[in-house]
Q: What sequence folds into this?
């Protein structure tokens, strides 16, 4: 089982009444609400926390791409990844991922990921994403029915650019290049490829056909994800795909503290901020043609089938109307002492058959010192106790060099040493 | 009007047709085909009306064969050619107006007279159009109608027997429309309009706020030889809200004696 450090780079200074103002936190959020100096401080905090996560034993440092939103101020994940590639040693640089349709020409992705792989010594995981409707079709203007086609053409170009030994011509529908010959090439001949999705059958077919790692990057936890993830694994099995759990990534908010009371005191406000300030205007979530009718029908059925999470619960979670422990009970967060957290993560990973947990160790407006404590507790008192999960299955979806270094590191500092500190 | 299917150039689409007389091609707007709408039936009283559903809309196929607008216009050229009447009159409403103008540019030999009704295709930086894909139903009604109560009179080609829900029918249509309208409904028509030589009537609903009044002037400036008619008491669908006035103004324009156009055509066939 692998554990990756992640946080949405959320702007932490929105006014408490932001949700009441009727503004969308995506696409059209007034930029007057943002102080660039504070944005810079926030970025530097995330870099420090991820550098610490590397030291604390995480398997990967996850960076993502979103546009025009205070919820996740990372228009280019490659920039954040560049800050980490040269200042960390062990963890994979998990780019999850570049929105392929938004790079023109897409060889830019091949070049920048290769650069990052070179700088990091072969630690890049190449995430390829379609991008949310807010990102790819509203902020970046792609006609929705072209998005998948553009994604696949770009993917083909990037993979060929990494593999080719000689310059080649690429005559695509959207990109024409006479001389494709990217410098540099990645150290890993072809970095591991992850493709996140939200349940589209077309994406499932892609990851099954290509044996990519699939990611379900929800922030709603086990109960919300259970019907979709179960359906995904059934679909994989029905198509004869590889059911190795290391091919499945899942995001989970984590709130570790010395005691449960301390967890509530330290994290509740930040958890509420994380959900409350994400006031996504529904009109930006539904671009016609972004999701096929076939997938819409399947997704709607799964939503209805979620037995442990009612639509009212989802609405209350988004409004910050749950108690801290109800967020925990409903699966939105996993909170408490390291002992409790490790038990709950074990249940989650087993229940969803997840081999790559992307833990959100910072959320909302959490103070840096709390996120640092969270990172340290999870890295040293949770991760070492969960290494047995799926240990019998090979992991072909994280960089070999990171696997070797982290394994060597944990042998040098065995689990017992951490337990003494508990 | 009779509903049937028509296969041309590998596209298999639904068509509504009827009437006897001079041929008239009707190209519908971005929301949906209107089906056997009352105004189509009145137009068919003394004309042979053919109203195809655009590829990708409703139950019409071929959307995956379209990479860009030119592919679609070449399809419509083939459709008119296969119809076999020679030059035809063309009415294009809304997005269909963009297609009709493009067809008249690409295949002037096939378009006798052109009527554009609240057309898309132009863009003014100073007067940005509302984003039709983003408008909630009430907001859409407010910009689309002079009197939103008229909405109940609008007909569509939705057919529950085909298995889609009404919401799915709308998604299918808007998906196809987005190919030509997302993120901005301008695919370069303005720089091609100087090649448009067919006698043209541009109709605007006075209360249309989907393509607001500033666009009347833009079309008039882009097509100096064209006539403009503004229909009072109508929004984006004057043929629904002011059917009599619409039929009258279209009829008057189409029934004028066939005569050479009153404007000058440059030596290269381009207005200078």
A:
């Amino acid at each position: 089982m692998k554990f990756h450090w992640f946080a949405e780079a959320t702007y932490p200074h929105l006014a408490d009444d932001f949700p009441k103002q009727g503004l969308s936190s995506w696409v059209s959020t007034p930029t007057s609400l943002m102080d660039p100096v504070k944005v810079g401080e926030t970025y530097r905090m995330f870099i420090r926390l991820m550098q610490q996560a590397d030291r604390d034993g995480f398997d990967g440092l996850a960076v993502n791409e979103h546009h025009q939103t205070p919820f996740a101020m990372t228009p280019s994940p490659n920039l954040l990844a560049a800050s980490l590639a040269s200042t960390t040693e062990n963890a994979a640089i998990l780019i999850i991922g570049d929105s392929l349709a938004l790079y023109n020409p897409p060889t830019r992705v091949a070049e920048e990921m290769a650069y990052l792989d070179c700088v990091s010594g072969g630690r890049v995981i190449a995430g390829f994403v379609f991008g949310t409707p807010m990102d790819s079709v509203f902020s970046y203007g792609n006609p929705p029915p072209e998005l998948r086609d553009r994604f696949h053409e770009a993917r083909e170009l990037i993979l060929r650019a990494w593999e080719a030994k000689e310059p080649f011509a690429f005559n695509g529908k959207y990109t024409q290049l006479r001389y494709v010959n990217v410098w540099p090439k990645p150290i890993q001949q072809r970095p591991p490829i992850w493709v996140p999705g939200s349940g589209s059958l077309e994406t499932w077919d892609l990851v099954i056909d290509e044996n990519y790692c699939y990611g379900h990057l929800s922030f709603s936890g086990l109960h919300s994800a259970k019907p979709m993830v179960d359906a995904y694994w059934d679909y994989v099995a029905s198509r004869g795909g590889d059911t190795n759990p290391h091919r499945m990534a899942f995001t989970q908010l984590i709130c570790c503290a010395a005691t449960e009371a301390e967890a509530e005191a330290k994290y509740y406000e930040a958890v509420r901020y994380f959900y409350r300030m994400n006031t996504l205007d529904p009109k930006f979530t539904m671009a016609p043609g972004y999701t096929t009718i076939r997938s819409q029908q399947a997704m709607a059925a799964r939503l209805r089938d979620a037995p442990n999470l009612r639509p009212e619960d989802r609405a209350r979670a988004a409004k910050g109307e749950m108690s801290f422990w109800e967020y925990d009970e409903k699966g939105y967060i996993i909170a408490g002492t390291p002992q409790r957290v490790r038990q709950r993560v074990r249940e989650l990973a087993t229940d969803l058959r997840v081999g790559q947990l992307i833990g959100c160790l910072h959320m909302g407006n959490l103070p840096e010192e709390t996120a640092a404590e969270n990172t340290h507790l999870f890295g040293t008192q949770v991760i070492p106790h969960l290494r047995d999960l799926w240990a019998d299955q090979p992991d072909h979806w994280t960089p070999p060099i990171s696997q070797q270094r982290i394994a060597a590191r944990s042998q040098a500092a065995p689990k017992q040493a951490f337990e003494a500190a508990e | 009007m009779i509903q049937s299917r028509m296969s041309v150039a590998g596209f298999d689409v639904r068509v509504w047709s009827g009437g006897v007389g001079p041929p008239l091609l009707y190209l519908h707007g971005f929301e949906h085909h209107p089906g056997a709408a009352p105004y189509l039936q009145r137009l068919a009283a003394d004309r042979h009306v053919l109203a195809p559903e655009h590829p990708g809309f409703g139950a019409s196929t071929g959307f995956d064969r379209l990479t860009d607008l030119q592919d679609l216009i070449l399809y419509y050229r083939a459709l008119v050619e296969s119809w076999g009447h020679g030059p035809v009159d063309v009415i294009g409403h809304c997005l269909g107006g963009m297609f009709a103008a493009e067809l008249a540019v690409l295949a002037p030999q096939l378009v006798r007279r052109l009527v554009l009704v609240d057309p898309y295709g132009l863009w003014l930086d100073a007067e940005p159009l509302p984003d039709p894909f983003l408008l909630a139903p009430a907001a859409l009604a407010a910009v689309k109608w002079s009197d939103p109560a008229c909405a109940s009179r609008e007909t569509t080609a939705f057919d529950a027997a085909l298995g889609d829900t009404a919401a799915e029918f709308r998604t299918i249509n808007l998906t196809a429309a987005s190919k030509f309208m997302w993120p901005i409904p301008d695919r370069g028509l303005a720089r091609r309009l100087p090649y448009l030589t067919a006698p043209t009537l541009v109709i605007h609903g006075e209360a249309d706020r989907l393509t607001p009044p500033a666009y009347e002037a833009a079309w008039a400036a882009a097509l100096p030889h064209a006539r403009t008619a503004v229909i009072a008491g109508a929004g984006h669908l004057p043929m629904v809200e002011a059917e009599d006035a619409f039929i009258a103004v279209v009829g008057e324009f189409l029934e004028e004696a066939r005569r050479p156009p009153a404007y000058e055509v440059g030596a290269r066939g381009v207005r200078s």
